[in-house]
Write a structure and sequence with these properties.
The structure is a homodimer of 382-residue chains. Chain A is an alpha/beta fold and 382 residues long. The first copy, chain A, is 35% helix and 16% strand. In chain A, the strands form four sheets. In chain A, strands 2-5-10-6-11-12-13-14 form an eight-stranded mixed sheet, sandwiched between helices. Chain A has a two-stranded parallel ribbon with strand order 1-7. In chain A, helix 3 runs antiparallel to helix 4. The longest helix of chain A is centred in the last third of the chain and has 19 residues. At the A-B interface, helix 3, helix 4, helix 5, helix 7 and helix 8 of A face helix 3, helix 4, helix 5, helix 7 and helix 8 of B.
Chain lengths: 382, 382
């Protein structure tokens, strides 16, 4: 069992100006911290989360031994990001459905649940909100770390608050989404929005949940998180009947609607589970934040120009079988940083697990991160 | 404008025994022929179609100048498959919604529309039905040709009717689907089946069409037909506003539901168009036929053993950026055929268009097919 943690929250009167032109007032951020902030407040590590995660990065809640945080294998006492040395902060992003202010909460302006009226939030907006919470905690300089969409937030920190970020650890991420990435997001969104139970995003007041759409969205997501290889290894063309021993694994059922292959069973299960706890409006908001992130955009697509202002030291990690955020995308970032003569460490890990690899245990991956944080710790004690 | 053609149809009393154990009686096959069958009936080429296609392979219908068949660039007078030399037959598969007996037709056993009760059909069943039609046309030996799912039918012909198939031309195909392929099919099916308008597959009698599901299915399909590269080249991160000149291309709309990127506009358009003409039950049937195809299955997964009985000469073609049916899958087939000392020509075309490449003009691809058919023509006249 991991160490015990307590979720916290902090309220802000705002208004927080958003990139869309809208503003948020009276908002709350859920967060957790692990370890101890040192005397000169120099050992803070902010961990940013991706689509389906939260401020609960590591540890377990009291009395819930199986409630490990989503990066509990990476962060904790004696782990690669060692909470005996570092003060780690996880913050739930605005628009989420896991504690921070989001579409399920009351809009103070109307007294009604936000629903689809929750303003569009961007990676940059999240970073601004995170920075305000760190201000309140008395933390000026820090390391920022994240995988996937969390990596985009780490990248954005180095551009929005260059003087504050000493180190950025960016895992399985990209400088922006490709057309194919956006396309998958769009199909997922259309599945949700065209579910009759979506009710234009105001389904809460109808007492329904667009579960059909959420299931489809999650199934699509899952396919893109895994590699073709690992799916073949885990499921291949195995029949469900073979697993259940029903037909001695020899016979097709010959049905278009029943589950025939194990991969179908797995995807349906994942979709069902997700639709029970994830908010549909949050799904739209977070996929849109992914779509919009593109720091090179205001530099005419020139990534090198975009990163001219970053002064952090960088560790980038990618995984060979990740086709959602491929190594080529990380290499674009490495090149832009090297063009600017920044300090960059880059590891391309030959792992079979696709995009999901960033959440899994891989000895080489864990060693790379551990070494990087050990070097950071030495800098601190020097 | 292409040459004019006339669709035909032929009815069969059956019963046609299906792999599922069910049987079809009183069924009709829609078909077209181009060119002239020679005196010794040796110049026939059967062209098998994939998911979203039909017997209308080439040519145009009278008075409809833009009604070109789906492989009109490949097949016709003077084209790579030259109808001045070959007698080409296109047959619409059972279960389709384009003319042959399918879910939209009346079940003679009940007097009601089949709907979801149309029996599950397999690639092998389609080949049996095609063989009966060729019997009726007086054609014994032939060449069989197809791309994608059509290629699977060509492969199955060489196993089900080895003595009849002189040549098999198999483009952008595979010996079976991977877990990832099945996964994408399953998501598309779930989108259709969970659309409230699906009504368990008997939506016709309710006067509705599960268009939401069909749209999602088509959007997913489209993403997998294209390569990441060609999507980036065609759409990239281009905003719709830039195309429409609205905001001088600089501004995001900041919306989760409106179209923001061109790729979204394209996918929605493709989905809408498809949902207007394609039958939902047909979509389920055809994707299931894809899932089920696996000739090595009854040989314990040994593809070489499966192809021991094939005696045809083979041309296989794959495309480097096809991630749906990758070149590696074609190479598995080449290996199995070479293990059996079969005559195999194999071309791996470096084309950027993904799976869709098999339908497009690529000089090298067209030349490869043309050369192969010229060799075939020489064999005939020898």
């Amino acid at each position: 069992m991991s160490f015990e943690v307590l979720p916290q929250s902090m309220s802000f009167a705002g208004p927080l100006a958003l990139r869309s032109g809208a503003a948020l007032r009276d908002y709350t951020l859920a967060y957790e911290t692990y370890g101890t902030l040192n005397a000169d407040r120099s050992n803070a590590v902010l961990v940013c989360h991706a689509l389906n995660a939260s401020h609960h990065v590591a540890g377990v809640y009291a009395g819930q031994p199986r409630s490990e945080g989503w990066w509990d294998n990476m962060i904790g006492p004696g782990k690669p990001v060692d909470t005996n040395r570092f003060f780690v902060i996880g913050i739930n992003n605005l628009g989420s459905c896991f504690g921070s202010t989001g579409p399920m909460h009351i809009d103070p302006a109307t007294g009604r649940v936000y629903g689809a009226d929750f303003p569009v939030v961007t990676v940059e907006d999240w970073v601004d909100a995170q920075a305000l919470l760190l201000d309140a905690l008395g933390i000026d300089t820090l390391a920022v770390m994240g995988g996937s969409l969390g990596g985009m937030q780490a990248l954005s920190w180095t551009l929005q608050y260059p003087a504050r970020v000493k180190h950025a650890v960016v895992v399985a991420s990209a400088p922006n989404l490709t057309a194919e990435n956006i396309a998958f997001n769009e199909v997922a969104r259309r599945a949700i929005v065209t579910d009759p139970d979506f009710n234009g995003g105001h389904f809460y007041e109808h007492g329904v949940i667009p579960k059909r759409g959420l299931r489809i969205a999650r199934m699509i997501g899952h396919i893109t998180y895994l590699s073709d290889d690992v799916m073949n290894e885990k499921f291949g063309r195995q029949l469900r009947s073979a697993v259940e021993g029903e037909l001695a694994g020899t016979g097709y059922r010959y049905s278009t609607q029943d589950i025939e292959f194990q991969i179908e069973s797995y995807l349906r299960y994942q979709g069902d589970k997700f639709s029970e706890y994830f908010d549909a409006n949050t799904y739209l908001l977070i996929t849109r934040a992914l779509d919009y992130f593109d720091p090179a955009r205001e530099h005419g697509g020139d990534l090198t120009a975009a990163f001219a202002k970053a002064t952090a030291k960088f560790l980038l990690v990618s995984f060979t079988t990740d086709w959602r955020f491929s190594p080529a995308r990380s290499r674009e970032l490495v090149k832009a940083l090297l063009d600017n003569r920044r300090s960059v460490s880059y590891a391309e890990i030959d792992a079979p697990h696709g995009h999901d690899a960033f959440l899994l245990d891989d000895v080489r991956y864990m060693c790379v991160v551990r070494s990087y944080f050990e070097r950071m710790a030495k800098e601190l004690s020097a």
